[in-house]
Protein: Fpg/Nei family DNA glycosylase
Amino acid sequence: MPELPEVEALRVFLDDRLVGKEIARVLPLAISVLKTYDPPLSALDGTTVTSVARHGKFLDIEAGGLHLCTHLARAGWLRWKDSFPAAPPRPGKGPLALRLVTTDGDGFDLTEMGTKKRLSVHLVHDPMEVPGIARLGPDPLADAFDRDAFAALLAGERRQIKGALRDQSLIAGIGNAYSDEILHVAKMSPFKRTADLREDDVTRLYTALRTTLEDAVDRSSGVEAGKLKAEKKTGMRVHGRAGEACPVCGDTVLEVSFSDSALQYCPTCQTGGKPLADRRLSKFLK
Structure:
């Protein structure tokens, strides 16, 4: 799933290529993708793109006073095209979900692999009309998001830190992958309770959060849209690397599986050498 660093890189990529261009047409190609119907997508025809913004994991393309807001979900992606075939694609065929074409002939496709269709597109007058954007917490890379602001958010929490980091209404943009990476850098168990965090724990976790996300954004800067997924994977130290050696201590990276996801961690770096039991069981080691 694209998270804050990849979506930020896509924002910069589109800002360089779309702003100032006129939209020729926007074609929905999967019945599940479009979540709003008024105004219709045809309202974008002939409008000029004025900005590209990011809200957490949402992309926001503004044109003609309207906002085309996209969430790529778990299996969605954006693919830039310098040109398109003359004949429009047939709806419902393959992974294509939506196509935006400019009057210059370039543009992008939104695609989604798999059978679970969660990619969403909203066309609205104000981004706050999108429920997923309206509920977002603060952006962790914003200037105002300092250590004290982070501590204030955690002060009212009574849950495992892994879940808190992933909660979009608490902090916007962090998902399963970067929460694993942040906790590895912070040398902290994903099962540690927020209520058990000491002042130095909060400071260490905040520093890990900022440096991990900033480093990921820097790595993604200037990378073509089609190569961002590969760049994300190569930058991971523990996430998606179960069974491999931890790059810090050499211990084997372990995994805890859930019904629809999994987390990875290093026992030496994060849990005092103790493996965490599967959360599907009634007991686990802290």
In short: The chain has a mean pLDDT of 92.
